Each structure stands twice: as structure tokens, then as C-alpha cells.
Amino acid sequence: MRAKITYLVTAAVLVFYFVLVGSRGVMLLQSGTLLTVTFGVAVLILPVIGLWFLWKNTQFVRKANQLAAELEAEGGLPVDELKRLPSGRIDRDSADEVFARRKAETEASPGDWRCWFRLAVAYHDARDTPRARKAMQRAIALHDGKPVRA
């Protein structure tokens, strides 16, 4: 729940920032000189890109949470079997061991979104966020029946 609140607060701050920047862009456009209109257009592009990025991330998180809920209902969520250091951080060797099992499971069933979901969790535990995201995107695509690139 804490992560959801943090995400919502961050998203609200970003939307406020986009509105603020957008209003400055409009003010620059209204000035009417070639230089200010050019800057105004450039300034208006930034909030558009930011809103698109925020929307795509929100959709990704929503879909990943839907998959987690579905997997939980099936009893297929990965069990936290990782060893932890006294500080509470995940032991690297333990994460690597679980990752190897999840990778083998996914290689055995490459068309199963559940395996890709569990692999994404293993990547995340191994602190490989870019690959975790790609694995989760693949799980979402497989779940939704969309074509998946090899």
C-alpha cells in the first residue's frame, strides 16, 4: 500500500509540474515573437512526452498487478525462499540460485506467461531491473495474446 501511495503522490506532483510547464509554454506562444514561439513549442513538447511516459508506466504497473492477482488466485505466485543478510538485503548467491531455477522453468515453457512473471520477479530480486521489466512486458503480452518477438 505504501508503494501505491508513493506512486500516486509522485504522479500528482508530475501532473502539477506538467500543467505548470504547459502554462509557461502557452505564455511563450502568446508573446508572438519568433524566438518565444519557438521556445513555447519546445516547452510544450516536454509535458506531452512526460504525460505519455507517465501513462505508459501506469498502464504497465496496472497490468503487472492484474497478473499478480490472477497468479495469486491460482496459487502460483513465487514463494519468497531467498536468504537475507542481517541488514535485510537479499543474499546474492540465494538470488542467483532462485534465478537459475526460474530461467530453466521459463526455457522449458517459453509460451507460459506465468513462467515469465516468475522470471521477472527473479530478475528483480537479482537487482536486474531492465531485464525484470522486459520479462514482465513479455508476461503481459503473452497473457493478453499479443505477438511476442523472439
From TrEMBL:
Keyword vocabulary terms for this entry: Membrane, Transmembrane, Transmembrane helix
Transmembrane segments: 7-27, 33-55
Keyword Transmembrane helix: yes
Protein name listed in UniProt: Tetratricopeptide repeat protein
Source organism (scientific name): Streptomyces nogalater
Lineage: Bacteria, Bacillati, Actinomycetota, Actinomycetes, Kitasatosporales
